[in-house]
UniProtKB/TrEMBL annotation:
Residues of the full protein shown: 566 to 1000 of 1000
Family: Belongs to the class-III pyridoxal-phosphate-dependent aminotransferase family.
Highest taxon of source: Bacteria
Name of the protein in question: Aminotransferase class III-fold pyridoxal phosphate-dependent enzyme
Length: 435
């Protein structure tokens, strides 16, 4: 104890964390960063050094947005309570969300996280169908609770995972770079979708009915994958034909990040029955939202009260609505489209000179760069090197994918031209060290 570090010293915080937190609470970067201030897409460490946040998709409208600070402070001064009392902020938030969705969505549920929204989606699908079985793409992630881990192959299939539940069937993720059907195959969307037929049959052979299908509309932890257009529409047709409910997890893709679309399912020409939102919708305040049809909400209204103490609190509703208003007022969806195109174009140019870039894919500010070995296999170590070197250049990017070889770039939607050019410049430098 005599050699205790000063509590705000990075090494001391790291040591305290190791002493008092679980070992599986992971830290990014070999030399972790400590961040104490933020502004838009910039972060500052304990020395005041700036970092470009090209990774965090939660501060959707930017870190420390003055309008979010102002509504949060205003509401906390007035009062903060739950959905058992009337408040216009609840209905105003619901109206705003529904204004962004097709008319068949009429009912909102407010919870505290993406996990909770997906957990609730499972309950709704089961209440509506009376069945238990779920089909979901491999390598998906939907949350950290018992129920959502069972539908998250990314978790249950890891060493130490609980394994695949009897009522879950996996389909190959619609990855047309590495998967069974490649980009040069014009029928790849249909071929990937047909895999769902066998999954439903396998469930039925085990005596399970079909409750539904859940997928990240663009699989993110699976490696920033953009399914071929029409894939989800074809899958949803098959699921509905067997009586199942189609759940679109838009936690990573929703609210304008894709630039061209407000939600990923629009790109797929698909209409889900349930849409799940999380992460960006509270800009850092814990908030999850599920929207669904009247019919499904009525099946769920089966005599048991639904209540979440904090879900749909006055404060949460004010913050959530403010986030969606800011996206509109600051034209952030448009900015995501323009900046995303600049970034993706630049990355495609880097691909021509750096052999370790196997694939560049993305839409708006949802971008993946697949790092490969000379034989095109997944270059996990090079990807880790690049991610850590980018941190030396004070640019924060992540990595993802089954083999952790896909650089993941998904900054707040406020990012500007110079920031995009800085990412490209630094990446060119770092890649020159490995190719
Ligand atoms: N769905 C997806 C697609 C996610 O990426 C995440 C979080 N990474 C979740 C659900 C779970 O959200 P939360 O961590 O807010 O519970």
């Amino acid at each position: 104890d005599l050699v205790r570090y000063h509590p705000t010293d990075k090494a001391g915080v790291l040591q305290d964390r190791r002493d008092h937190f679980g070992g599986n609470l992971s830290l990014t970067y070999n030399d972790p960063v400590m961040l104490v201030r933020g502004w838009k897409h910039h972060l500052f460490d304990e020395w005041g050094r700036p970092y470009l946040d090209a990774y965090n998709n939660v501060p959707h409208v930017g870190h420390a947005h003055p309008r979010i600070q102002s509504v949060a402070a205003d509401q906390l001064k007035r009062m903060n309570s739950n959905t058992r009392y009337l408040h216009p902020a609840q209905t105003a938030f619901a109206d705003k969300i529904l204004s962004k969705l097709p008319d068949h969505f009429e009912v909102c549920f407010f919870v505290n996280s993406g996990t909770e929204a997906n957990e609730l989606a499972l309950r709704l699908a089961r209440a509506h169908t009376g069945a238990r079985g779920m089909v979901t793409p491999d390598h998906g992630y939907h949350g950290n609770t018992t129920g959502t881990i069972d539908i998250s192959a990314y978790k249950f299939n890891k060493p130490g995972g609980t394994g695949q539940a009897d009522w879950v069937e996996l389909v190959e993720v619609a990855d047309d770079y590495r998967g069974s059907f490649k980009r040069n195959d014009p029928d790849r969307a249909t071929k990937f979708a047909e895999l769902v037929d066998q999954a439903i049959e396998r469930l039925q052979a085990k005596g399970h009915g079909l409750a539904g299908f859940i997928a990240e509309t663009f699989p993110s932890v699976g490696g920033q994958i953009i399914p071929p257009p029409g894939y989800l529409a074809a899958v949803y047709d098959k699921i509905r034909a067997e009586g199942g409910v189609c759940i679109a997890d838009e936690v990573q893709t929703g609210l304008g990040r894709l630039g061209h679309y407000y939600f990923g399912f629009e790109h797929q020409g698909a209409l889900p029955d349930i849409v799940v939102m999380g992460k960006p919708i509270g800009n850092g305040h814990p908030l999850g939202v599920l929207v669904t049809t009247k019919a499904i909400a009525e099946s769920f209204d089966n005599g048991i009260e639904f209540f979440s103490t904090f879900g749909g609190s006055t404060l949460s509703c004010r913050i959530g609505k403010e986030v969606l208003d800011i996206v509109d007022d600051e034209n952030l969806q448009d900015n995501a489209r323009v900046m995303g195109a600049r970034l993706i174009d630049g990355l495609a140019t880097l691909k021509q000179t750096h052999a370790c870039i196997g694939d560049v894919r993305g839409m708006g500010l949802f971008v993946g760069v697949e790092i490969v070995n000379p034989d095109r296999t997944e270059a996990t170590q090079i990807c880790s090197y690049v991610k850590n070197r980018m941190r030396d250049f004070r640019i924060l990017v992540g990595s993802e994918g089954p083999k952790d070889n896909i650089l993941k770039i998904r900054p707040p939607l406020t990012i500007d031209t110079q920031d995009v050019d800085m990412i490209l410049w630094a990446l060119n430098q770092v890649l020159s060290e490995v190719t």
